[in-house]
Write a structure and sequence with these properties.
The complex is a heterodimer of chains A (286) and B (463).
Chain A (H helix, E strand, L loop, with lengths): L7 H7 L6 H13 L1 H7 L7 H11 L7 E5 L5 H10 L2 E6 L2 H13 L6 E5 L12 E7 L8 H11 E14 L10 H6 L8 H10 L2 E8 L1 H20 L12 H16 L3 E10 L8
Parallel strand pairs in A: 1-2, 1-4, 2-3, 4-5
Antiparallel strand pairs in A: 5-7, 6-7
Chain B lengths: L2 E6 L6 E9 L2 E8 L3 E8 L2 H6 L37 E5 L28 H15 L4 E5 L9 H10 L4 E6 L2 H5 L3 H8 L2 E5 L5 H8 L4 H14 L3 E7 L8 H10 L3 E8 L18 H11 L10 E2 L8 E8 L4 E3 L6 H4 L11 H10 L9 H13 L7 H4 L3 E6 L9 H4 L4 E4 L5 E3 H6 L2 H12 L7
Parallel strand pairs in B: 5-6, 5-15, 6-7, 7-8, 8-9, 9-10, 10-14
Antiparallel strand pairs in B: 1-2, 2-3, 3-4, 11-12, 12-13, 12-14, 15-16
Classes of the chains: A alpha/beta (286), B alpha/beta (463).
Chain lengths: 286, 463
Amino acid sequence: MSAGAVEPGLASLARGGELADEELKACCADAYANPAVRWLLGEELHPGGAATTLRTLELAGLRPGERLLDVAAGAGASAILAARELGVEALGVEYGERAVEAARADAAAADFEASVRFLRGDAEALPVEDASFDVVLCECSLCTFPDKRRAVAEFRRALRPGGRLALSDVVAEAGALPAQLRGAMATVACVGGALPLGGYEELLAAGGFSLARHELLAGDADLFARRIEERLRGARLLGIGPPEGAPLRVEQAIDAVRMARRAIADGLLGYAILIAQLSEPARSQT
Amino acid sequence: MLGATESICPRCRRVLDAQLIERAGRVVLSRSCPEHGAFEATVYGDARRYAEIQRFDKPGEAPRERQTESVAGCPDDCGICPEHAQHTCLGIIEVNTACNLDCPICFADSGTGHQEHGYSLSLEQVESMLDSFVAAEGEPESVQLSGGEPSIHPQILEMLRAAKTRGIPLVMLNTNGIRLARDPRFAPALAEIGVHVYLQFDGFEEASQEAMRGRALTEERLRALDRCAEAGVSVSLAAAVERGLNEHEVGAVVRFGVEHPAVTGVFFQPVTHSGRFRPESDPLDKLTNSDVIEAVAAQLPDWFRSEDFVPVPCCSPSCRSATFALYDGEDLVPLPRLVDVEQYLDYVSNRAVPDLDVREALEGLWSAKAAGGSAPVAERLECIACATAMPAELREVAARGFMIVVQDFQDPYTLDLRKLRKCCVAEIAPDGRLIPFCAYNSVGYREQVRREASRAAPAGAPR
C-alpha cells in the first residue's frame, strides 16, 4: 500500500493492546493522516463532510471577521472552508505533524495563508492565548481524546466572553454496543470513546458550558458508514490488503462497519452537532 | 423554462426555435412550425437531474479535418461542418441494408425482403471510408461496422481487418448474433482479427422479443455468446429499451451480462422512433436515459443507485451516462463509489481538480470510445486506482471492470440542435462525410446516403 509502513501505535492495536494516552493521541493523528484512511473517509474525515461543517458553524452563529479555533484540525479542510465561505480568521491546531504540513500547503494553495494558520499542538494543552477566539470548533474528535475534561477546560480558556463552542461528534449508547465496537481500536474509529448525548451535556456542564442546541444527523451517519463499507468492499474486490501489521483485515473491517450501520439503524450510534455557550458564572473546573 | 435551443419540424424538417421546459418533473422540448403546428417531446425524465448534469459538459475538441462548408446552416451541412463543436469518438459504417431479421423497431429500415434503395458496400468503398475517418481524426479510437446485418456481408471479415490494419484499437461488429450462432467458424475468425462484438440483446421474454424483433431469439443469442466465450471474443450486450415492452428486463440483462464470461458491458438504448416503429406513439411518453437508469437501480438495488451513472462529458450530458462496476463472482461495487467521479468530470463548478491524471483516466473511461474490458480501459482503471492511494498490481483485476452505458439517440421529435452540435458519434458516409448519428437518422441523411449508395452498389448486384 502506498500509504507506507504502519505506525507503532496502530501496530500495537493489532496486538489487541490498550494504549497509553500519548500513544492513543499519536495513533489517532497518524490514522487520520494516512492516505488510505482519507480515501475511505473522504477529505473532511467526518459524516456529512463540508455540509456538516458549514451547518455547525451556522448554528454557532459564526460571523465574518470573527476568530475561529479549529481543534484537531486534521489536514485543515474545515478551517480553510470557514475562511473561504464565511470570511473568518482561523487557527487550526492539530496533533499530527504531517497533517499540519499538509494543511499549511493546502492553505497556501488556496491563497488563504494570511487568514488561516496551523499549529502543531495538543487539545489538552492548546498553544493559544486565553480568551482569544469567538468560536471553538471541534469535529469528530472530542470522542477520541483521552482526557475530555481537560480538553473542554482548554476550549473554555481559549474562548472570549460570549464565545461559543461548536462540536460535532459521534453519539453512542456505548454500553449497548457490541464488544467489537468498543475498545482501543473502536476509540481510534471514533466509536469506542463516544458518549451518549446526555454524556456530552454533563461533560460540558462540568466544564462551564451550557448546551444551547443540538441536531442529530442520523442520515449523514449512515451515509458516512456506507461510504466506508463500500470503499472497503472495493478494496477487497481489487485485492488490496492492509499493510503488514495493520490492526484489521479488510474482512474484519467490513464486518465492523456493518455492525456500526446496524447500530446506527437501531439508534445506538449516530452523529450530532452540539452548540454550547459559556455559562456565567463559570462552574468549578476539574 | 430550462433553456432555449433549436429543433426541427418533424414533418417538413425546417429549423425552428425551441424551448426546453419542465413539466411534471420531466424535461420537454417544445416548438411550433408555422405550417404543421406545435410539437412536444420528452427529452429527459428527471428535470432536477437534467439541470444538475449540465456541469459534465467538457468543452469540445476540433477534428483534424472538416469535410463540408457552412452553407445552409445546422443541421443541413453535416459532414463535419465548421459549426460542429466536437470531433468523432466513434465512427459507424453501415456496410449493407440487408438483414436476416425484420425487427419492427429497426431505425435503419432494414430487413430480409426487397430493400427500397438497398445497397451493399464493396470492400474498396469501406476502405476508402476508413481512410476518410483516419484523415479526419488522426488516430481514431473506435469504429463500428453495422448495417443492415453486417455479418451477412460476404466480405465482412476483410472489412473488419481493414479497420484493424489502420491501427484503430477498438473495432466493433454490431450484430444480431444469428451468424455467430449458426456458423461455428465465425467467432474464431473474429477472435483472430481482434474484433469486439456489439450484440443485440434486449431481454429474455418471448413477448418482448416478438414485439421488438419479430420472433424469439434468446436461444440463438445464448449460443452466439457461448461461441464468443469459447473463441475468446469479448462482447457488449446492446439492449434497445421500449416503454411497456422490456423496461422491466434491464436488471436481468445486467445480471446476466455480469455473470457471462464473454460479456464485458451492457449498452442500453431507449428505442428511437425515427424508423418504422410506432409512428403513432406519443413523443411525450418516450423513455429517456433517466428512466432507464432508474429502472436499473430499482431492479438491482443491491448493486446500483442512480448516482452511479455519470454523464459522459465528451457529448452533451443528457446523451450518454455510464458506470463501471467491479465484480468478483460474489460482490459488486460500482467505480463511482470508490472514486469521486463526479468531482473529476465537473467542468463548470469552479473547483480545483485534485489530480489531472485521474481526470484524464476517467475521461478515457467515460467516453463514447470505450467498451468494457478492452485493454485501454483496463490501463485507465489501473491508473485511477493508483492515484487514489491504492497499489499498482491492478492490471488483471482492472480488466474486470464491467461497463454499463445508457445512450439516448435523438429522433425528429426529440432533436435538439445544441446537443447535436456536440455529438461525437458519426455515421461515415461512402463519400467520406462524417454525419452526426442523430442528424443521420432525423434530418434525412440516411435516405439521401441510401439513394446514392444504392445507385452505386445496389444490393443483390454481383460483387
